[in-house]
Amino acid sequence: MVYLDNAATTWPKPESVYSAVYRFMQSSCANPGRSAHKMARVSSSTVMKTREALAALFNIQNPLDIAFTGNATQALNMAIQGVLREGDHVVTTAMEHNSVLRPLCHLKRSGLIDYTVVMPYDSCGHISPSAIADAIRSNTRLIVMSSASNVTGTILPYEEVGRFASEKGILFLVDAAQGAGVLDFDVQAMHISLLAFPGHKGLMGPQGTGGLYVAPGVEIRPILFGGTGSRSFETIHPDFMPDMLEAGTVNAPGIAGLGAGLQWLSKVGPENIRKKKKLLLEAFFDAIGRVPSVRIYSERDAAMNSGIVSFIIEGMDSSDIGKQLDTKYGIAVRSGFHCAPLAHEALGTMKTGLVRISPGFFNTVEEMEYAARAIRAIARG
Questions:
Q1: Domain Aminotransferase class V, which positions (predicted)?
Q2: Residue 230 predicted with pLDDT over 90
Q3: pTM above 0.70, yes or no
Q4: 332 in helix, strand or coil?
Q5: Where would you tag: which of 17, 119, 138, 196 has the fewest CB atoms within 10 A of its CB?
Q6: Beta bridge partners of 2
Q7: HSE (CB half, 13 Å, CA atoms) of 172?
Q8: How many CB atoms lie within 10 A of CB 317?
């Protein structure tokens, strides 16, 4: 199997991730923050070390400003539903995942908020910062956007948007699902108020891990209430981070694995991840060449692409292409609509969907060339 679905979940993981989860489950799998015995203390220490590693990666001053979640979807819901108030306006983009669009739609249908969707200006899904600025109203409280599109891989202008959001006093939420571990994030320099990220993609952790960074001074309400291990004698939920957003037991074994993934990432370095993805993208584009019936919706320039190639073959549905790649060639890709309906509507691919190829660090040039040859063969019929 040639696995080219890393935008959904990275695979394989570094060996240290598997062993970290196993060791934790075997020797330290007590409930962190709930008891004072040795196993619980080791568990709490493991969770804290992973917080600290995340803080170092994203330049977060206080690791306790990071709340662990089960995935980026939970983090985005916590952020969107936690900071918005009745009468607020939100600016977002058509390139967003349903993890952003559905919470916004829910709040709008409930009559609580309104939002404006900024459209891309080309077939790769580029968003103009000036278009986002033009969409701001007097009651705009939040701008939310992805660091990179999960459909096309196009890197969106989150750094520029963060600057003018800060100047206008507007909260800025970044969905780092396709950026964390690959792109650079400095929450202070980039004026990021809230950063949502998954653990199981570029950070190389297990599924069931993720987190939300909340900048100091950002007022956020919890959307989940329960036990936290702190102030257990009170029925009022804690109002301090990270406890206010971590009701219930966190996924400590997964967080142990995430910590190992972050350790591996710090040794390899995001800059080397980008270099490897650049090499893989260039190998694919060189091998695919120009096939008239193959339409590509991703940037060939790796400086503008987080590591995705999306395409369609004229006259074919994306699901049929994906099935052939799987059953005939042993290549795993993602076909369909990628939980991003507005992106496909904007790109004009609502009828066919797109086939998404997303290489990871452990893929090879030979695998990318093989995938290109397979696509050329399918295009020839």
A1: 2-369
A2: no
A3: yes
A4: strand
A5: 138
A6: 331
A7: 25
A8: 16
Mean pLDDT over 75-84 rounds to: 98
- Residue 231's pLDDT band (cuts 50, 70, 90): confident
Cβ 230 vs Cβ 238: under 8 Å: yes
Superfamily of domain 269-379: Aspartate Aminotransferase, domain 1 (3.90.1150.10)
pLDDT at 33 over 90: no
Q: Where in the chain is the domain with CATH 3.40.640.10?
A: 15-267
Predicted pLDDT at 233: 87
Average pLDDT over residues 325-333: 98
The H or E element containing residue 341 is helix 341-347
Kindly report the average pLDDT of the chain as a whole number.
97
CB 82 within 8 A of CB 69: no
At which residue do the structure tokens 């908020």 appear? 113
For the domain spanning 15-267, the CATH number is: 3.40.640.10
Cβ atoms within 10 Å, residue 20: 26
Q: Which long-range contacts (CB under 8 A, 24 or more apart) does 117-120 make?
A: 117/92, 117/93, 117/342, 118/91, 118/92, 118/93, 118/94, 119/93, 119/94, 119/346, 120/93, 120/94, 120/95, 120/343, 120/346, 120/347
DSSP state of 155: B
> Percent of the chain scored above 90 by pLDDT?
96
DSSP 331: E
Which residues are within 8 A (CB) of 112 and not within 5 positions of it... i.e. 6 or more apart? 84, 85, 86, 87, 88
Q: Which two tokens stand for residue 293?
A: 């019936």
φ/ψ of 205, rounded to 5, equals -85, 180
Task: State the span(s) of the chain assigned CATH 3.90.1150.10.
Answer: 269-379
* 358: DSSP letter: B
> Six-digit token pair at 118?
């900024």
The CA R_g of the chain, rounded to the nearest whole Å, is: 21
> pLDDT tens digit string along 248-299?
999 999 999 999 999 999 999 999 999 999 999 999 999 999 899 999 999 9
Q: Is the pLDDT of residue 340 over 90?
A: yes
